[in-house]
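Posting for a labmate who doesn't have an account.
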Amino acid sequence: MTTPNPIKHTPNIITLANLLAGCLSIVSAFEGNLLLAGYLILLAAIFDYFDGFTARLLKAYSPLGKELDSLADLVSFGVAPSVLLFHLLRDSLNIPATEGLTAGHTLLVIPFTVAIFSALRLAKFNIDTRQTVSFIGLPTPANAMFIVGLILGLDSPFAKWFQIVTSSPTAIIALSLVLSALLVAPIPMFSLKVKSLNIKQMWRQHLLIALSLLSIFILGRASLTPIILLYILISIVGLIFKEE
């Protein structure tokens, strides 16, 4: 009988750390600390990267790890970002924290379309054999980073530009619906992994890295949302050129 190697469980432990960060983000948001909630989602994204990296390093792939990863991602990159949008929408509508759906504010349901479509996106990803080297639809972590970027932008010198979106109920509702649609849209999105220095083969990845570095240099912590926008635009441009 083979003795189980505890080291092989390391990726799953990191995945559970991702889940914990997502849960703490939700708690922080309901305590009114949206900035901390945003940073905790960023921490979850770091754990999400390292669980896959560790699994590849240790060759510790398992069906359990795959399912656990999706469940953790649903909380950290589906539910937690929805809660951020919920708070932004509630504040933009000037609804007191003591009120909510029970007071008839049904519009507050709309941000949770992101959680619903994230669940659908993750379920489709697990059974879609086409998404081994690239993605179809916006990946849930990228979607979450877009939303977190709005929160970080509000705590930056560029806050007034982000307030144009976050202070408008119409903008937040539209954003919730558009991001939900992008999660399941049949749009190929390139993988962020740079497997080669060949610019012709990996031009989208190299272009995104260059523009991201420029964005970070100019915008600092306000750069996250623009970077995800660039990722979406470069993916669409790449699709247009491929079709031509």
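Reply:
Got it, the structure tokens are right above this. The chain has one domain: 6-187.
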